């Protein structure tokens, strides 16, 4: 008969043991790089001493076990395998994890007299969040704290940490403004992609005017060349995204006026673009640059090769003019948005535009002959 053990006593060499625990979390682990294909049913288990361990039920066994387990309930689990934990994205601090077999036994305990807590959180001090950057041992997310299929948001829990936070602000009045969220439709996106459409030659000809209100334009252009002489990334501040400067052995952010211990590398691409009227240099930063490269493949992980693959492709670029462009007549423009829509679906492709113009001219000529 298996002996019931605590989580801290579990080791790979121990066999035929059982674990009395509460299932505090359940989620589907998915492969985000393969259309969110289901990988496994994952659990976090907690015992009476408050220790936690990650348990995995492989895809082949998930259909059998899913109806047998409910989040929040207490079970005695036996006939499982204890393994060394993964090297990255661990949901809890434990060097070991559990894997279910087809013969794993699960028995629900309905009358628990010991009492196993419902939740156990491993809180991270806010000032320590940057230390997790580029450290994927534990599942935290990037610096902007991206969610995953394992993410769950708890609201107003009855735990000590939440009570301390409530007490901290109990004497403060915080005004909350309710706003209706508006979903951006495809039509809205199309409108933005065609708003203030101008050619590159007209863009180059715009001059500064102190009374000018509109400074956002869109251009349909093709990428002739990624100008590699300018590089393809820069070292930035994790807070304000500004470029950092080397001062001795430190990286300094002039905007935040501080030494940055955890810098972030971000895209910065200089693109030579052209349309039928002329050419110019467009500069694309970070997230917009990722739109150009997200579907690129490179067998040798050579990022520059992947970036070069955008050459010859057409995009709709949104340009926000600044005093730098208008006063100094600079021919380098910063791209504020790249529309990912297929230019053909937006009826913006040059061939489509020329075809429509030809049809319009033919119809006008026919009208004159009536």
UniProtKB/TrEMBL annotation:
Give every Replication protein A 70 kDa DNA-binding subunit B/D first OB fold domain span: 6-107
The UniProt keywords, alphabetically, are:
DNA-binding, Metal-binding, Zinc, Zinc-finger
What Gene Ontology terms describe what this protein does at the molecular function level?
DNA binding; zinc ion binding
Q: Give start and end of each Replication factor A C-terminal domain.
A: 220-342
What the entry lists under CDD domains is as follows: RPA1_DBD_A_like (cd04480), RPA1_DBD_C (cd04476)
Name the domain of life. Answer: Eukaryota
Spell out the InterPro entries in the cross-references: Euk_RPA1_DBD_C, NA-bd_OB-fold, Rep_factor-A_C, RFA1B/D_OB_1st
Q: Which family does it belong to?
A: Belongs to the replication factor A protein 1 family.
Per its record, how is this protein called by name?
Uncharacterized protein LOC109706160 isoform X3
Tell me what organism the protein belongs to: Ananas comosus (Pineapple)
Report the gene name: LOC109706160
